[in-house]
Design goal:
Blueprint (H helix, E strand, L loop, with lengths): L13 H52 L20 H10 L38 H6 L7 H4 L1 E3 H5 L14 E2 L2 E2 L3 E3 L6 E2 L8 E2 L4 E4 L37 H4 L23 H4 L11 H7 L17 E5 L12 E2 L4
Antiparallel strand pairs: 1-4, 2-3, 5-6, 7-8, 8-9
Length: 337
Amino acid sequence: MFPNLKNQNKAFTIIELLTVMSIIILLIGLLAPALNQAKRFAKKVKQKNQLKAIGNAIEMFRNDFDEYPDSSGDAPGSTGTFAYCGATKLTEALVGQDLSGFHPDSRFREDYQDSLGNLLYDRDPTSFMGDPDAENLDSRVGPYLQLENANAHRLWHLYGPLTQPSGDNVPDGTNGTFSANAFVLCDVYSRVENHSLTGKSSIGMPILYYKADTSGHMHPHFQSGPGSAFTDPGFNNIADYIYDYRDNDLLVQLGKPWEGIPNATNGAAHVMDSRGYSTGYNPPLNTSSAEFFYERTYNENIALSAGRPHRADSFILQSAGFDGDYGTNDDVFNFPK
């Protein structure tokens, strides 16, 4: 009699199982990079949308005040105790430095005072001393950005609790040369640990803002790529430039908060840190790292020997991108790149 074939074992053999597992592992290996690429692309689209929303808010500010917000970088001692730069001035213009709207009497200075010495914004959220009164709040305009979407964080949220302010009657702590209480608008990349006890556990890097000087006529750029000849390597004609890299340079010098002590020689400095090669903070470069800003904002579609940036008549917004490092190839700007 013939054996009953229905009773034979139909289970997979070890060889067959290993073959199937190998195919699955191979497919995962092929698909994972594509999925990661898709996630990064989706994140970049989200970042572009955020910059577009901020750009629209800046245009609304301009409609009300006939000019774009100031972006010049003010060093400590020029107006008060702390530095104030494009990123913090952008936040003041769009949401106010206490998130209650912009005060028309603002001088865009870190002391938050008008020309008569009156305090325009609440400097310390832990105290009621110096809080704006009802008349002050009635004078505010904006916020031009919805607070739910503004992604605004105080500097100490990014750079650590050791700089958290301790009260309204004492200097309110510094992150390098900045007020720890100052707000910045952060990008969508959750690269930094949030040292605040509220909100998401990780947040993005500050969005940098540069206002164009329409009286300028120059924009330095590499003639054939980084490391090659630069049109103005000494930055001797900065007053003639359409954009000034110094507007946010002090903030960039705070370094990468996820890499230990900012500005140390352990690689914590950003590539775009203007102190560059001579400090040893960055990889060796032939020229100052500040040139990375000019190279990435140069409009190669306009053939002018003097150089021409993107958005030469308005403003530039810059996100540090996925890697959180200003000056690298994945930086996201408010223009096609």
